[in-house]
Amino acid sequence: MPAPEFAVWLTIACAVSLFSLKKGHRQFKRARLIEDMPTSKIRSASQGYTELVGVAELQGHPQLAPLSNTLCLWWRYTIEKYQSSGKSSHWVTVEKRVCGQPFYLRDSTGICQIDATGADISCKHRHVWYGSTPKPIGTPKPGALTSGFFSLNSGFGRRYRYSEYLILEGDPLYTLGEFITDSTGQRALSPQQLRGDILRAWKADFSSLLEKFDHNGDGELDLREWQIVQDAALQEAHRQQRELVQQPAQHLLTKPRHQGLPFIIGSDEQQQLSSRFRRGAVLYSGGFLLAGSLASWLLGSRLFG
Q: What is the pLDDT of residues 58-106, one digit of tens each?
């Protein structure tokens, strides 16, 4: 084998081997996290990296999937074009979009908003169909949604493939991410801290403050009047805190702040999700062994051939 060709094949084999090793380790780590992480309830979950399991729930208006016009809570789609050049034929992605709106998970103890930005999301609802236009025309019939290229709906001459992934209301949800309660922090503030915020807001409109608390009319707030202002602010702080306590806690699950922790959302059962990651780890491990064996054979043939 000529030296330039040998270098190309060795580089490819080493790159594939290292890539497969990295991806296989990543898949295996995610499977172990899903299996070992204890499931928390929303009401009692600790702040930080948390696993929640529940069902997808609608809050407000549903989303409308752009390609199939399906009512859903979250969507992602890809449009690909079939290109052929000589003996080479392949699909090329021409458009890809992801829903940016949050959705909600409910368990037996409460409800949590899910900000899916940056998450690895697997959906049980995957629709794939074909057409001859850059955007699908009309709504596909449920029986025509398929994952095969030579399907009844594809036919010859259909040069576009539309893939759509959906989370629907009532789907089971497995989530692993950063759990945050009351992100504004107001619920955790003491009355004294709230009073400070109230006083700063009142002093921003000093003329109204004077009008309300300048009892002797000298245009200033003396020590006695300022004490009255502070007492009134403290009373207002206690009132606001009572209102905050009566309101239901607001929970959010989002991308972990620690870069090494995965953000996982799946609309499959927990065991199925873990099995999927383990299968991926096995496949990448096979790729690592095959590519590594090829690299070793190439080096051996060059050094000892």
A: 887 788 999 998 999 999 999 999 988 777 788 999 999 999 889 999 9
Listed residue (55, 23, 34) closest to 264, CA to CA: 34
* pTM for this predicted structure: 0.65
> Using H for helix, E for strand and C for coil, what is the string for 30-76?
HHHHHHHCCEECCCCCCCEEEEEEEEEECCCCCEECCCCCCEECEEE
Q: Where are the alpha helices (DSSP H) in the chain?
A: 3-36, 191-204, 206-213, 223-246, 270-304
Adjacent-strand bridge partners of 160: 81, 131
Count Cα atoms within 13 angstroms, Cβ side, for 156.
Answer: 0
The structure tokens listed for 291 are 């590519």
Give 174-199 as a DSSP string: EEEEEEEE-TT-GGG--HHHHHHHHH
The CA distance from 190 to 33, in Å, is 37
**Pair type for strands 264-266 and 172-181:** antiparallel
Angle (deg, nearest 10), helices 223-246 and 206-213: 110
